[in-house]
């Protein structure tokens, strides 16, 4: 398995899917994804172009950017829906928000697709394929539309894999698989191979992606220039681009996981909560934030949800503190088998923002006594403990940044594993 794994998540026929979701929400008994339908233009004036089409419409020769008049000629009973771009923007935001709920390592590249760095959450799943299927099914269940997910060790191949058989599929295309899965494809199927480039390549006798991959790169570059070199590199699975995490001012930091099976034992849930707490705390520290509100959310196997949160007097970015809080919140909520677990932090402040110290921070147990009489030894002990936890968290961050998440575990985690 490659060290670095990238997902490309692509909404299946986004505008048509989102229009279908809206129509169903408004009470329509027609799911336009299952009939000959398009989004775009006007059926009365026959003006405009096709923005999106259903699978059956595609099978009848209708393609994106085709004039509506021509599409209606191919399919007289075509169902036409006008686009609703404000609704599409809302659905796109929900899609990206859900993805960022899984990991912050997301790069949105268009309204309906994004890349995800899987490496940082790899310890939460049995395999990339399992993770992709869980994510795909969660999007379908919570948002009402389907996606394809491509998995690879480089961006371009992840993108290519997501374009394989649709809809609602997961495909892999690692560099070691390109000879079998990608090289036999027509050259026009290569990502970024436009009409002009394809025509030139076919004149050179290059009909498949494999033909291009095996051709001398200088020969290709002589005919197409720098774009030809890029196409040759893509055909050979060469792509040095990384997932560019897009940072924005955050209002909260959270992490959740959809489980592969029902969890009924509290010790199993605590094991997951510790991992989630570490990830949330690590993200807080990377963003130089501290949280004053910490919560837990659960989804049961009947899809009902429950959440609980508490506010703390002193903001924190400590993995241990966050875990201890959600650990206390959990027991009353363990009333049904659990399928999703999440840890949430909100009410964030900057890590260097001054805050009011409490008497507890000085170690007097909260008694109404003069601060000057606070036991010095207790004060030093509490502050020393905070410093030690800070150093421990920093050590975890350094190791995980260098070697990847999951390369080091706390002793309590290892003890839990040995007990199972």
Task: Give an overview in words.
With 420 residues, the protein is an alpha+beta fold. It is 41% helix and 20% strand. It contains 15 helices and twelve strands. It has helices spanning 14-25, 55-59, 68-74, 85-102, 128-143, 155-162, 178-181, 195-203, 209-214, 217-224, 226-235, 266-286, 319-329, 376-403, 411-419; strands at residues 6-11, 37-39, 52-53, 79-81, 106-110, 113-117, 147-152, 170-172, 252-263, 289-300, 305-316, 338-350. The strands form three sheets. The chain has a five-stranded mixed beta sheet. Strands 9-12-10-11 form a four-stranded antiparallel beta sheet. Helix 6 (155-162) links the parallel strand 7 and strand 8 (170-172). It is globular.
Structural class category:
alpha+beta
Estimate the helix proportion, in percent.
40-55%
Strand content: 15-25%
Counting DSSP E segments of at least 2 residues, the number of strands comes to 12
How confident overall, as mean pLDDT? 86
Strand order of the largest sheet: 5-6-1-7-8
Q: Main beta sheet, described?
A: 5 strands, mixed
The CA-CA distance between the termini, in Å, is 26 Å
Which segments are poorly predicted (pLDDT under 50) over 5 or more consecutive residues?
357-380, 413-420
Query: Helix count?
Result: 15
Shape: globular
Element order, helices and strands? EHEEHHEHEEHEHEHHHHHEHEEHEHH
How large is the radius of gyration? 26 Å
């Amino acid at each position: 398995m490659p060290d670095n794994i990238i997902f490309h998540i692509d909404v299946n026929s986004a505008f048509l899917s989102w229009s279908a979701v809206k129509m169903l929400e408004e009470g329509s008994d027609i799911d336009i994804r299952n009939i000959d339908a398009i989004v775009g233009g006007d059926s009365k004036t026959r003006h405009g172009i096709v923005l999106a089409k259903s699978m059956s419409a595609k099978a009848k020769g209708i393609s994106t950017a085709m004039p509506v008049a021509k599409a209606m000629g191919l399919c007289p009973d075509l169902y036409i829906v006008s686009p609703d771009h404000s609704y599409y923007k809302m659905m796109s935001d929900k899609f990206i928000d859900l993805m960022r709920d899984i990991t912050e390592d997301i790069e949105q590249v268009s309204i309906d697709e994004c890349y995800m760095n899987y490496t940082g959450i790899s310890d939460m799943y049995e395999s990339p394929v399992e993770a992709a299927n869980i994510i795909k099914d969660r999007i379908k269940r919570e948002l009402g539309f389907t996606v394809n997910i491509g998995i690879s060790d480089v961006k371009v191949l992840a993108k290519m894999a997501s374009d394989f058989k649709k809809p609602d599929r997961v495909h892999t295309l690692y560099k070691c698989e390109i000879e079998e899965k990608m090289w036999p494809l027509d050259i026009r199927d290569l990502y970024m191979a436009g009409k002009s480039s394809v025509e030139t390549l076919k004149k050179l006798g290059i009909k498949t992606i494999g033909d291009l991959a095996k051709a001398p790169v200088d020969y290709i570059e002589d005919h197409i220039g720098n774009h030809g070199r890029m196409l040759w590199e893509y055909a050979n699975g060469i792509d040095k681009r990384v997932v560019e995490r897009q940072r924005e001012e955050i209002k909260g930091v959270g992490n959740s996981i959809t489980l592969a099976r029902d969890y009924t034992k509290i010790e199993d849930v605590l094991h997951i909560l510790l991992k989630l707490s570490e990830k949330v705390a690590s993200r807080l520290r990377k963003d130089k934030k501290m949280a004053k509100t910490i919560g837990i959310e659960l989804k049961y196997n009947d899809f009902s949800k429950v959440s609980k949160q508490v506010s703390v007097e002193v903001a924190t970015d400590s993995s241990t503190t966050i875990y201890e809080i959600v650990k206390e919140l959990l027991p009353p909520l363990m009333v049904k088998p659990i399928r999703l677990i999440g840890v949430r932090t909100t009410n964030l402040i900057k890590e260097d923002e001054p805050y009011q110290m409490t008497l507890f921070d000085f170690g007097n147990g909260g008694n109404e006594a003069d601060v000057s009489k606070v036991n010095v030894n207790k004060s030093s002990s509490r502050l020393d403990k905070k410093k030690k936890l800070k150093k421990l968290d920093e050590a975890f961050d350094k190791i995980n940044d260098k070697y990847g998440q999951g390369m080091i575990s706390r002793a309590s985690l290892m003890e839990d594993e040995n007990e199972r």
